[in-house]
Inverse folding.
C-alpha cells in the first residue's frame, strides 16, 4: 500500500535482470490516454485505473541516439527489439516495403537461427507476423511469395547470433524518421493551426498534421534553455535569448505534463551522454565488452565446432553417398554378372541349337544334294524316256496312220468282198432257182421223191452239178469265214493298238507331272 512507483519498477527490473533501467517505465491507460507511472509518488495515490488487478506495460520510455553504443545489456537490446518490432508491425513507425522485408529477415534469424533448407521447409513462416498489413495490402503478393522474399534475405544471415541479429534490426530501425518519436497534437496561439509536436532523444520537433516524417521546425536539446507550461499553454525558450520563444496549446493539462515529463527525461539522457561516464556505466561497459568478447569467442568456437560438425556431416554424407554408390555399383555389377551368366548360358544353348541346326542343315544339304543328283538323273532319265516316248508316239502315230490306211483299205476290200459276196449269193440264188426250175420241168417226180439211183447217168450228171454247186457254196462260205476272221483280227489289233495308245498317253502324262515337279525343285 505504501509502495511508490519506483518500488514497483525496481521489482520488475530485478525480475528481468535489467540494469539499464533509465530507458524504461511503467505505462498504463486512463480515459483513453497513455500515461507513465511516476517514480516518486505512491502507486495508489496516482490516477491509475480502478481495476483489480491493475495492468501496466513495461516499455521503453526513452530511446538511445545510437543503439550499438548505448544498449549494453543483452536483455536491454532484446526488450528494445521486441518493442520496435511491434511498433513497426502496428504501423506506429513507418517503414518502406523493402526495409520491412530486410527487418523481417533479421527477426527470423533471431528467432530460428541459421537457415537450413532441410529443416525450414516452405510454409515455416506461415504463423509468424513479420510484415505490416499496409505492406501486405500495397502489393498483390501471396503469403508464399512474401515468404520466398524474406527467406532469400534470411539465408544471407548465416552465422549471425540472436543478439547480433536483434542489434542489426535496431541499427536499421533507428534510421527511420518516426523511430523513438512521441507525437502530441498541438495548436499555435496565433491562428490555432493544428500541428504535431514530437519529442525524441535529439530534441523537440514541430510537424504538420499530415506529415510526420519531415519536421517544419526542430529544437535540439542543446539549444533549449527552458521548457515550462501554464495550464494548456507550453513554452519553449531557446538558449539564444534573441531567438523567438515558441508557445503552443495542447488539448488538456495532462498532455502538457506528459510532454514536460518526456522532455526532462530525454534532456537528462542527452546531457548524460555528453558527460564522462559514471563508475557504474564504465563497469557496465567493461562488462559488456568482456561479455561481447566472450560471446564472440564462444560464437567463434561454436562456429568452428558447427563448421567441423557440418564438414563431418558432409564427409559422412559423402561417405554414405559413396558407400551407397559402391553398393549400387556392386549391385549393378552382380546384376550384370547374373545377366552375363544368363546370356552365356543362353548363348551356349543357342550355340548348341545352332550346331544342331547346322548339322541338320548339313544333313538337309546332303539330302538336298542327293535329291538334286537324283532329280538330275531322273531328269536325264525323264528326258531319255520322254525322247523314247515321243519316238514311240511318232511310231504310234505312224502305225495309227498305217492302220487307218489299212483299215480304210480293208474296209474297201471288205466292202468289195461284201458286194462280191452279195453278187455270189445272188448268183447262187439265181442258180438254185434256175436249177430248181429246170428240175421241176424235167423231173417232176423227183421233186416229190428226191431219191435217185446211182446207176442212172442223168442222176450222175445231176450229182455232178450238185457237187459243183456245193463246192461253189463251200467256197463262198470259206471266203465269208476268212473275211469275218480278218475282220475280227483287225478289230482285235485295233483294240490292242488303242490300249497301247492309252498306255502311252498315261506314261506321257506321268512324265509331264514328274517334269513339273522337277522344275519346282530346281
Amino acid at each position: 500500500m505504501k509502495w511508490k512507483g519506483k518500488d514497483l519498477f525496481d521489482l520488475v527490473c530485478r525480475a528481468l535482470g535489467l540494469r539499464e533501467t533509465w530507458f524504461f517505465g511503467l505505462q498504463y491507460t486512463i480515459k483513453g490516454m497513455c500515461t507513465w507511472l511516476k517514480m516518486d509518488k505512491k502507486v495508489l495515490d496516482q490516477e491509475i485505473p480502478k481495476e483489480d488487478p491493475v495492468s501496466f506495460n513495461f516499455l521503453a520510455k526513452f530511446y538511445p541516439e545510437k543503439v550499438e553504443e548505448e544498449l549494453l545489456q543483452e536483455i536491454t537490446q532484446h526488450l528494445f527489439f521486441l518493442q520496435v518490432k511491434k511498433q513497426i508491425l502496428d504501423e506506429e513507425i513507418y517503414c518502406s516495403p523493402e526495409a520491412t522485408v530486410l527487418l523481417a529477415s533479421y527477426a527470423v534469424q533471431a528467432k530460428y537461427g541459421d537457415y537450413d533448407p532441410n529443416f525450414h521447409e516452405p510454409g515455416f513462416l506461415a504463423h509468424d507476423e513479420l510484415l505490416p498489413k499496409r505492406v501486405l495490402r500495397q502489393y498483390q503478393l501471396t503469403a508464399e511469395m512474401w515468404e520466398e522474399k524474406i527467406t532469400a534475405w534470411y539465408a544471407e544471415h548465416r552465422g549471425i547470433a540472436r543478439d547480433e541479429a536483434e542489434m542489426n534490426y535496431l541499427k536499421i530501425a533507428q534510421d527511420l524518421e518516426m523511430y523513438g518519436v512521441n507525437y502530441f497534437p498541438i495548436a499555435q496561439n496565433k491562428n490555432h493551426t493544428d500541428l504535431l509536436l514530437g519529442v525524441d532523444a535529439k530534441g523537440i520537433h514541430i510537424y504538420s498534421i499530415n506529415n510526420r516524417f519531415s519536421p517544419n521546425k526542430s529544437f535540439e536539446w542543446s539549444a533549449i534553455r527552458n521548457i515550462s507550461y501554464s495550464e494548456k499553454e507550453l513554452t519553449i525558450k531557446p538558449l539564444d535569448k534573441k531567438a523567438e520563444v515558441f508557445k503552443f496549446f495542447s488539448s488538456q493539462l495532462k498532455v502538457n505534463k506528459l510532454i514536460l515529463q518526456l522532455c526532462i527525461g530525454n534532456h537528462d539522457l542527452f546531457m548524460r551522454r555528453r558527460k564522462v561516464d559514471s563508475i557504474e556505466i564504465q563497469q557496465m561497459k567493461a562488462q559488456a565488452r568482456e561479455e561481447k568478447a566472450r560471446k564472440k569467442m564462444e560464437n567463434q568456437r561454436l562456429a568452428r565446432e558447427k563448421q567441423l560438425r557440418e564438414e563431418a556431416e558432409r564427409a559422412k554424407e559423402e561417405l554414405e553417398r559413396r558407400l551407397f554408390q559402391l553398393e549400387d555399383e556392386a549391385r549393378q555389377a552382380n546384376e550384370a554378372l547374373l545377366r552375363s551368366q544368363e546370356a552365356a548360358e543362353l548363348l551356349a544353348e543357342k550355340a548348341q541349337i545352332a550346331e544342331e541346326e547346322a548339322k541338320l542343315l548339313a544333313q538337309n544339304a546332303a539330302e538336298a544334294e542327293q535329291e538334286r543328283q537324283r532329280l538330275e538323273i531322273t531328269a536325264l532319265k525323264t528326258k531319255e524316256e520322254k525322247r523314247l516316248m515321243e519316238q514311240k508316239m511318232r511310231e504310234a502315230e505312224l502305225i495309227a496312220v498305217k492302220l487307218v490306211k489299212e483299215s480304210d483299205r480293208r474296209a474297201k476290200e471288205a466292202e468289195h468282198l461284201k458286194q462280191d459276196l452279195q453278187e455270189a449269193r445272188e448268183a447262187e440264188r439265181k442258180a438254185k432257182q434256175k436249177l430248181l426250175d429246170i428240175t421241176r420241168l424235167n423231173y417232176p417226180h423227183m421233186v416229190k421223191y428226191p431219191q435217185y439211183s446211182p446207176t442212172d447217168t442223168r442222176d450222175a450228171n445231176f450229182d455232178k452239178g450238185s457237187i459243183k454247186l456245193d463246192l461253189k457254196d463251200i467256197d463262198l462260205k470259206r471266203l465269208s469265214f476268212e473275211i469275218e476272221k480278218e475282220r475280227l483280227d483287225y478289230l482285235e489289233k485295233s483294240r490292242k493298238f488303242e490300249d497301247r495308245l492309252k498306255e502311252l498317253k498315261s506314261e506321257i502324262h506321268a512324265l509331264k507331272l514328274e517334269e513339273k515337279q522337277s522344275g519346282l525343285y530346281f
Q: What stands out?
A: The first strand starts at residue 24 and ends at 30. The chain has three domains: 5-174, 182-275, 281-440.
